[in-house]
TrEMBL record:
Native source organism of the sequence: Metschnikowia aff. pulcherrima
Record's compositionally biased regions (Acidic residues): 259-269
Renumbered residue ranges of the record's region Disordered: 244-269
Keyword Nucleus applies: yes
Protein's name in the database: rRNA-processing protein EFG1
Organism phylogeny: Eukaryota, Fungi, Dikarya, Ascomycota, Saccharomycotina
Subcellular location: Nucleus, Nucleolus
Keyword set, alphabetical order: Coiled coil, Nucleus, rRNA processing, Signal
């Protein structure tokens, strides 16, 4: 009899436990189903705002390529136009933009220099030979009148010699990055031209030629030339690389706009 009572009590206890587990599981599923944070297997996580990839600032594959640099600059400029860009990201991107702009300007400048150096190579070569020949003649004449001791003739010969030195230095020192203005232009002078536009262009070219000659004369007078005229007269090879006159920011910026232009340079040769 006692064994029967114990069995009944155990059965009731097991039934109660089973009922409790079933009720709890059902309530839990109902709560999950009604929760606003429940996501199905195909649902997406809610967006918490924009994320900015810092790895996008890596410029390793951009430097050295004008096309990639221009695309990257445009991409960064568009990003910087956003009002919600975090301050630290903005600073990082601005630095990257500045580095890209400097690299692009330098690359375009070098490309333009190579193009112009090749274009004017023969003109400069023949003019250098002519200028050196005139220098030798002027030096010989100066030495001769110096021996004779005629002051008036010495002064005249010294002036001719100085002009010859300026022409040689002009040819050697003229920046390869700029359009070469010929020392000995052919054709009619500006005074003989009737077309006003052509005359204006020729006068501008003449003014620039005189400007460069004045700069060269200053280098000669201050003894700042990277060579001597004795070396020229001795026939030594003179190579002056990467020489250019100081340029302001506007002239450097202009390089990016001139890169795609087809330059005729009618007044410069």
């Amino acid at each position: 009899m006692q064994q029967y009572v114990a069995t009944c009590r155990l059965s009731k206890l097991l039934f109660a436990v089973a009922f409790f587990v079933h009720f709890t599981d059902t309530s839990l599923h109902s709560a999950i189903a009604s929760s606003p944070y429940t996501f199905s297997s195909h649902s997406k996580m809610p967006k918490t705002g924009h994320r900015y990839d810092r790895s996008g600032t890596d410029l390793t594959d951009v430097f050295g390529s004008s096309v990639r640099a221009k695309k990257k600059i445009k991409s960064i400029e568009n990003l910087l136009a956003r009002d919600d860009l975090p301050a630290d990201i903005r600073i990082e991107k601005e630095r990257a933009l500045k580095a890209l702009q400097v690299d692009l300007k330098t690359r375009l400048f070098n490309l333009r220099t190579q193009k112009r150096a090749k274009k004017y190579h023969m003109v400069r070569f023949f003019e250098r030979k002519k200028a050196i020949r005139k220098l030798k003649q002027a030096q010989k004449a100066f030495d001769q009148v110096t021996e004779e001791g005629v002051k008036k003739e010495i002064k005249k010969a010294r002036k001719v010699l100085k002009h010859s030195q300026i022409d040689v230095a002009y040819n050697i020192m003229y920046p390869k990055s700029q359009k070469y203005i010929s020392l000995y232009p052919s054709g009619p002078s500006a005074a003989e031209v009737e077309d006003e536009n052509v005359k204006k262009g020729m006068l501008l070219t003449d003014a620039r030629r005189l400007e460069f000659k004045k700069k060269v004369e200053d280098l000669i007078d201050s003894d700042k030339l990277p060579f001597t005229f004795d070396e020229i007269l001795q026939g030594k090879s003179i190579n002056v690389d990467n020489v250019r006159w100081p340029q302001d920011s506007k002239e450097i910026d202009a390089a990016t706009n001139e890169n795609n232009e087809d330059e005729e340079d009618d007044f410069f040769e």
